[in-house]
Amino acid sequence: MNGLSTLLIVVGLFLVGGIVSFVKQKMPRSLIAVLSIGAAMCLAAGVLRLGVWN
Fold this sequence. Notes:
Elements: H1 3-24, H2 29-49
Helix pairs in contact: 1-2
């Protein structure tokens, strides 16, 4: 596991925590949707950079 993939996974998990917090605070759905997309992209990029698929 290299540094960039670790960083992307950690940022993605941080954003997932933000999503949970925003849902509890009843923030606007559009903000939660944008945050969800960002979290999914970070997590996907981190997992794909691991290179376990090769």
